[in-house]
Design a protein that fits this description.
The chain has 76 residues and is mainly alpha-helical. The chain contains 2 helices and no strands. It is flat and about 45 Å long.
Amino acid sequence: FDPRHYLGTHCYRFPKTGPHRLRFLLESVKDLRETLKKKGSTLVVRKGKPEDVIRDLITQLDSVSAVAFHEEVREI
């Protein structure tokens, strides 16, 4: 979870994530974790800036051969 997603928008500082969206997100992540667990896998969930969290995870795992990501489109 990137803390920057819970700040205000660039224009007018409207909240990016309200209480309903946050609840949906948390329930979705919980459901995904439970589904993966039933299939013998797991889900790693972290809080922080992705550029820091991913770097730390790669260092901890020491066997990463590829990383895929997407970048949020920013408003101009």
